């Protein structure tokens, strides 16, 4: 008898990503000159880490990685991050370490971080977590770090982006591949959370439910427990899948527009490299605003504090010119129109 369908589904999702990783590995090895090896020196087999909170999604992911990696000649390890946000969090992290070792992962480690305040509690925890995962990947020379985000997480991310009102890039949710050199992989992005939970249940894997996931103080938690269920009630069960599909479509659209904007950018600059307002005016707004945003970032505006409303205001120097003064942007960057040129620079 084969494995339970939920277990088969999580393993297949992981197998696909491991295959992609091996293909990438071979491609990059072919590009580089072969490394001289002594007669008995065997290069260690590549290591893939799973980032595991101990929750159902990442425990399911860890179990599938432990099963699939050795079959493909890969080593499987795990990292759990102790955010130190609740009393006893270090004990829980140690428990996760034990569970991962029981699955046969090696190396396994827990890493403690200090969570700051910047950008709110969720963003601060996320920043600290990714910094720790990056460091762990480097320390162990891992070729990838797997994350347990599911289709449901993707749907939540799309809704959060929609509510921010900031364009299709934020509707494109999380990428299946991201981070430095495509280090982060999300094998479960097309898998529903129920399947991951089921896979843990039938494999008798104990899981830990993060109290933050049910804490109504967190936006994502409210969305998960109130927002999405209300949407499903109003629009039907397919809404999660539709939102995840929206993410993929939006990502493709956003990528295409970014490429278009990069190509158009050179053609709207004069001989001195200044942006010409008349040429910008002739471009579609989606392309023009991307060029303006990029120019502001290059002038020193921090991307994370540059919002759609900032760019809209700069855009009005092009499309609604009536002699406005200089516009202040984050990072002390100033945008102003001078003699048919748009000048964006640090003020
Ligand atoms: N403390 C942590 N240590 C290591 N990895 C983590 C930690 N918290 C989250 N992750 C990684 O990020 C992914 C998404 O986490 P998040 O808390 O947003 O979602 P989740 O649905 O609650 O996931 P899970 O059920 O695995 O906890 C997890 O699946 C895991 O891969």
UniProtKB/TrEMBL annotation:
One Pfam entry name: TilS
CDD domains recorded: TilS_N (cd01992)
Assigned EC number: 6.3.4.19
Chain ranges of the tRNA(Ile)-lysidine synthase substrate-binding domain: 275-342
InterPro entries reported for this sequence: Rossmann-like_a/b/a_fold, TilS/TtcA_N, tRNA_Ile_lys_synt, tRNA_Ile_lys_synt_N, tRNA_Ile_lys_synt_subst-bd
Localization in the cell: Cytoplasm
Catalytic activity annotation: cytidine(34) in tRNA(Ile2) + L-lysine + ATP = lysidine(34) in tRNA(Ile2) + AMP + diphosphate + H(+)
Comment field on protein domains: The N-terminal region contains the highly conserved SGGXDS motif, predicted to be a P-loop motif involved in ATP binding.
Official protein name in the record: tRNA(Ile)-lysidine synthase
The organism of origin for this protein: Streptomyces pseudovenezuelae
Gene: tilS
